[in-house]
Design brief:
The complex is a heterotrimer. Chain B is an alpha/beta fold. Chain B has 19 helices and 20 strands. In chain B, helix 6 packs across helix 18, helix 7 packs parallel to helix 19 and helix 9 packs across helix 15. Chain C is flat. Chain C is mainly α. The chains are: A mainly alpha, B alpha/beta, C mainly alpha. Chains A and C meet through helix 4, helix 5, helix 8, helix 9 and helix 10 of A and helix 1, helix 6, helix 7, helix 10 and helix 11 of C.
Chain lengths: 288, 539, 315
């Protein structure tokens, strides 16, 4: 007897599908590795990233410094490790803000309809009218640069995204017969939303969550590049790219590795999201 | 030589066997009825002839059309055949037409492709065939888009596309299943006329034995991917030699045993008076007055304790809207609904609780009726929410077990998920959920329409049984007169939002007085009548 | 149709009004006294008071808001503190860089993405599809400014085909201008093209599963013709939606890309204005960008109606 037999049928089925899905598996492994790297950086990095060793500046790749050193002689690999914390934290909290505010808003609008719904849609129009990065730049400029303000700026733009996804999902569910049956059983809209709507749009939200997570990492990198994200001496991937730009003629490796870190992280999250969608959406599953 | 010969056909999709040993022939001008319950493989047989199978499908055996080996024919040869020599009509008219192209473009496209005719010639021919299928130019110019047409009209366009080039063989896959009985009768008549005029062979696929008996010269009866019996229609269905044929025929006309209509003690349970429901329409112009669509128009009805009443009517007549109003899932624009002596309209959800406890609902779709993420115990127990005080966990399980036993399921089923059950079993679960609070009234909205005939017979028995044992009253909403006749004492006929006739079920169906009721009765397929007609025609 | 257009117009207008209130309020709560900023730290109190009066800074909030909006409507965006020139002139100078940049990248991304997406959809599950989708997966993950750095390194530093940055202006002819906009446009366009190609592919696959595709095939139309005649137009609706959203991304993208390539465009102008607290410029440029997003989305909505007759007849 294996452990699997203790799982309910539906879950065992899910697990088997998930492990057979190449995107999901690749994405999961990449994401897990990046997360592990961020966690390890709290207790260990090859070099201390606050330690400036001028003698070692702008070294190329070597056994001592796998990815070389920067213009202050800091170890690039260590900086990428520490920088991942910042990227992940900013994107994660920003997604949390978006979900935490957007999902209840979307569910509320779908349940109430009428003016509430119209107001939410107009609010969405308003937020989407501001190019996200432009507003992020404005917000961080008003409240000053820094990781916390970057989180707020990116988080605000996740709110309408999640509101929209939750609303669309909930609207599709409300006319279903099992919702009508629940209403005939005297359940109120709030209770039905918690018992029936949320569990059935959860997978959709999860998929959107991974996509927004990936976009959050890109946005954070953009803000840091402009100098509006995490402030030195805290290393961040975007800032490292900014520092690399003027020195690219002599030391292209300065630009290569932080960029690759961003690409791999975003790629991993996108693969995870695609895989999740394939596994969770039975309609698409049939197409493969 | 026959027009279509299928010999020894076997089909598997991605390794799963779908069809085995299929033999079927159609002669020119002959109507072949292909009958079977869901999953019997009848649609896949048709798609094999068209070679429009999913990519993973593998067919073996021999399919010969007009001397051409279909299974071996290259795609290009099939493109020559499809739409020219073989036409096909599908089940779902609402989605079968491209929403962004006019009906003229869609009919003319095939004509131009196959004949190389000029645009003007092709359009003239498209015009002619649309006229022929009952879409005259004055009301249906070529420039109409599909969304401007009703379901029945769209099915006529699909038939026009399929018949534009007078194919030798027409395949119609459940062409009327999505339509109401009156439209069904019209479309079937159109198909029959087209077949006669052009000496086309017709492969008519249907789950409805009565429809096929009415239309087909010969029938083939399929089950689980294999042919059970085939032969001349009149003989096959009158003799019913094969046990499965007999089973199907009996299930189609099944009437549950019910004691004589219970002494309706004149104990009034539900009284609907002058109920109207308007839905706002989009404004015609920005400054025009807001317009309304009146779905339910001044309806009054009464239902006594333990009584079983049918509400019948064509699709879109407002019967489902009326059901929702009675269930207090929607609010009437005007009028009053009294249940068990209590007024329901304008009440808050909390005030409605006692009424909801005594009034439950069963829906049509056994697959959409349950939250797929919950176990049966939780699903069936949902209405217990209405009890005051709430039962404890042990009592809850006890009540669920009792309800499951009442509908012929096992108490142990409560720990399973809904996807582990078949359609018929799920409908039993729906009924278990409806009776768990021991309601006085169950509103059932097309509760057997989505079920295969043999399952339908069992569910009708269950409804009859619960009516006897628990004394629960029914309001049965259905478009199927056979069902209404089988299970109800009285009937209400609804048309364009109004009740146009009511009375004893047998009396209304035998001698309808209103036009709407007469149209329904005349259009309704009836297996026994159809067999009798066939036998008479055969002499 | 008319009602549909009017409703969309009304929504667009409402969005613009709300946006102007938001922008104005944000600028109001920003710390810093514009008059002080203009005159510098050594200004006398009297000079400050006079200037504040001149600028209308002592008027009530709602009057200042109305004056601002009224000014914008006639093209008067006020004067920049730092450049001491009318904002409208600054915008004019910078728009001749940003507008061509955005147009070229949008065109580039559309022209690449739609055929690629259709190609992949038509070959679903085959090697061509899997490899094309692999490339787009990578494209989606690449930050455009990093991609820009790589392009600079390869084409400007290494191959020396194009300048690494800066903008010569249109005075010296069209070609030098286009040449210096080429890399920035590619850097902006390719990641967007990757997204658009994926959307096109999945929209096409969705449509190819519809019943009316089967009807068309049952008419005898070959798969390829059905793809072009029946599937493409139905698949355009989600594609157009994404293109509308991408325009906003593109505008925002110019902020970073113009910084990478030292291009004197609107993005760089607004970024510098924010860091220098040149609020009048920020207000004006932000409103201009918001207005263009609203207008583009309006255009997308109207294109829906052209593509889909169901929207057209919805009275």
């Amino acid at each position: 007897m294996t452990v699997e037999t203790h799982l309910p049928d539906a879950q065992r089925h899910w697990l088997r599908l998930a492990l057979a899905n190449r995107s999901f598996l690749t994405g999961l492994i990449i994401t897990a590795l990046i997360a592990a790297m961020a966690l390890i950086s709290f207790v260990w990095t090859p070099y201390d990233v606050t330690n400036l060793v001028v003698a070692d500046r702008m070294k190329g790749l070597s056994a001592q410094h796998w990815f070389g050193t920067d213009h202050f002689g800091r170890d690039i690999f260590s900086m990428i490790m520490v920088g991942s914390r910042n990227s992940i934290a900013v994107a994660f909290v920003a997604v949390g803000i978006g979900m935490g505010i957007g999902v209840p808003l979307g569910c509320w609008a779908a349940a109430r309809g009428g003016l509430v719904d119209e107001a939410l849609m107009r609010f969405n129009d308003l937020v989407f009218a501001f190019p996200a990065l432009l507003s992020a730049v404005m917000i961080t400029a008003i409240f000053g640069p820094g990781a916390v303000n970057a989180i707020i700026a990116i988080g605000i733009f996740n709110v309408p995204v999640f509101a929209r996804v939750a609303r669309a999902g909930a609207l599709a569910l409300w006319p279903r017969e099992y919702i009508l049956a629940a209403r005939a059983a005297g359940k109120g809209k709030a209770l039905i939303t918690v018992e029936h709507i949320l569990p059935n749009i959860a997978s959709m939200l999860l998929v959107q969550g991974t996509i927004q997570f990936a976009l959050g990492i890109l946005a954070e990198a953009g803000l840091s590049y402009l100098g509006l994200g995490a402030q030195p001496p805290m290393p961040s991937w975007g800032r490292m790219l900014f520092d690399a730009q003027t020195r690219m003629m002599v030391a292209p490796h300065l630009a290569i590795f932080p960029g690759l870190a961003i690409v791999i992280t975003v790629l991993g999250l996108n693969l995870l999201g695609d895989g999740l969608r394939d596994v969770l959406d039975p309609r698409l599953r049939r197409e493969r | 030589m026959s027009l279509l010969e299928i010999e020894n056909l076997a089909l598997d999709i991605g390794g799963t066997p779908i069809l085995r040993d299929i033999d079927l022939t159609i002669k020119a001008g002959e109507v072949m009825g292909l009958v079977g319950e869901s999953g019997s493989g009848k649609s896949m047989t048709a798609l094999t002839v068209m070679k429009l199978l999913p990519n993973a499908a593998k067919a073996r055996g021999r399919v010969t059309f007009d001397g051409i080996d279909i299974l071996a024919a290259p795609e290009q040869a099939m493109n020559q055949l499809r739409g020219d020599d073989i036409g096909m009509v599908f089940q779902e008219p609402m989605t079968a037409l491209n929403p962004v192209k006019t009906i003229g473009e869609q009919v003319a496209e095939g004509i131009r492709w196959h004949t190389g005719a000029s645009r003007a010639d092709a359009e003239a021919r498209a015009r002619a065939i649309l006229d022929r299928v009952g879409l005259p130019e004055s009301k249906f110019p070529l420039t109409r888009y599909p969304h401007e047409l009703s379901g029945g009209q769209r099915q006529r366009v699909v038939i026009a596309i399929a018949c534009a080039l007078r194919p030798k063989l027409l395949i119609a896959d459940e062409p009327t299943t999505a339509l109401d009985v009156v439209l069904q009768a019209q479309i079937l008549e159109l198909l029959r006329d087209l077949v006669d005029e052009n000496r086309m062979g017709l492969l008519l696929i249907s789950h409805d034995l009565a429809v096929v008996t009415d239309m087909a010269d010969r029938v083939t009866i399929m089950r689980d991917g294999a042919v059970m019996e085939s032969g001349e229609t009149a003989r096959t269905l009158s003799e019913q030699k094969h046990p499965y044929t007999r089973q199907l025929a009996q299930a189609s006309v099944h009437v549950p045993e019910r004691a004589a209509a219970p002494d309706t003690s004149r104990d009034l349970l539900l009284k609907v008076s002058g109920v109207t429901r308007d839905y706002p329409l989009r404004r015609a112009s920005l400054f025009g007055a807001p317009r309304h669509f009146r779905a339910v128009d001044g309806v009054s009805l009464m239902l006594n304790r333990g009584q079983s009443k049918a509400l019948v009517g064509r699709s879109g007549c407002g019967k489902s809207t009326l059901a929702r109003l009675i269930l207090a899932l929607d609010r009437p624009t005007s009028g009053s609904i009294r249940f068990d002596g209590e007024e329901l309209t304008g009440r808050s959800e909390n005030e409605l609780k006692p009424a909801r406890r005594n009034m439950q609902v069963v829906f049509q779709d056994p697959y959409g009726s349950f939250n797929p993420r919950h176990k049966v115990e939780r699903l069936v127990a949902e209405p217990l929410h209405l009890l005051d005080p709430q039962p404890g966990p042990a009592e809850r399980r006890e009540k669920v077990a009792e309800a499951l036993v009442n509908v012929g399921m096992q108490p142990s089923d409560m720990d399973k998920y809904p996807h582990e059950f078949s359609g018929g079993q799920r409908q039993r679960l729906s009924i278990a959920r409806a009776i768990i609070t021991r309601p006085r009234l169950i509103v059932a909205d097309e509760p057997v329409s989505a079920l295969d005939v043999s399952i339908r017979a069992q569910i009708l028995d269950l409804f009859a049984d619960l009516n006897q044992r628990l004394g629960v009253a029914y309001l049965f909403i259905t478009h199927d007169l056979t069902v209404a006749r089988a299970i109800t004492d009285e009937v209400l006929v609804m048309h364009d939002g109004r009740i146009v006739e009511e009375g004893d079920t047998g009396r209304v169906f035998d001698a309808p007085r209103s036009d709407a009721a007469r149209a329904l009765v005349e259009a309704a397929p009836d297996l026994q009548r159809a067999i009798a007609r066939r036998l008479a025609a055969a002499g | 149709m008319a009602a549909f257009i009017l409703k969309r117009l009304a929504i667009g207008l409402a969005t613009l009004v709300l946006a102007s209130i938001v922008v104005f309020s944000v600028m109001e709560i920003l710390p810093g006294d514009p008059a002080l900023l203009m005159l510098g730290m050594n200004a006398t109190d009297e000079a400050l008071a006079v200037l504040r009066n001149q600028m209308g800074l002592n008027d009530p909030v709602h009057l200042r808001y109305l004056a601002w909006v009224a000014g914008m409507l006639v093209g008067d965006f006020g004067n920049s503190y730092t450049y001491s020139t009318p904002v409208i002139e600054l915008i004019g100078e910078r728009a001749v860089v940003s507008l061509p940049l955005a147009t070229i990248s949008l065109a580039l991304s559309t022209l690449i993405a739609i055929p690629v997406g259709m190609f992949a959809a038509a070959r679903r599950g085959r090697i061509a599809d899997t490899s094309v989708m692999g490339v787009t997966q990578l494209g989606v993950a690449i930050p455009n400014f990093w991609f820009a750095l790589l392009l600079i390194y390869v084409f400007a530093v290494w191959l020396r085909l194009v300048p690494a940055g800066g903008f010569p202006g249109w005075g010296g002819g069209v070609w030098p201008g286009i040449r210096s906009l080429f890399l920035p446009a590619v850097a902006l366009a390719l990641p967007q093209a990757a997204i658009l190609a994926r959307v096109t592919r999945s929209a096409m696959l969705e449509v190819l599963g519809e019943d009316y595709i089967r009807t068309a095939r049952a008419k005898g139309m070959p798969r390829r013709i059905v793809l072009w005649r029946h599937a493409l137009r139905n698949a355009m609706i989600p594609v157009l939606t994404i293109m509308g959203l991408q325009f906003a991304f593109l505008l925002a993208g110019t902020i970073i890309i113009e910084n990478v390539f030292y291009l004197p465009g609107l993005g760089r102008l607004v970024f510098q204005a924010i860091t220098q607290r040149d609020l009048i410029v920020v207000e004006g440029v932000v409103m201009l960008l918001v207005a263009s997003v609203v207008i583009v989305n309006l255009a997308v909505d109207l294109t829906y109606a052209l593509v889909d007759p169901r929207l057209r007849s919805r009275a």
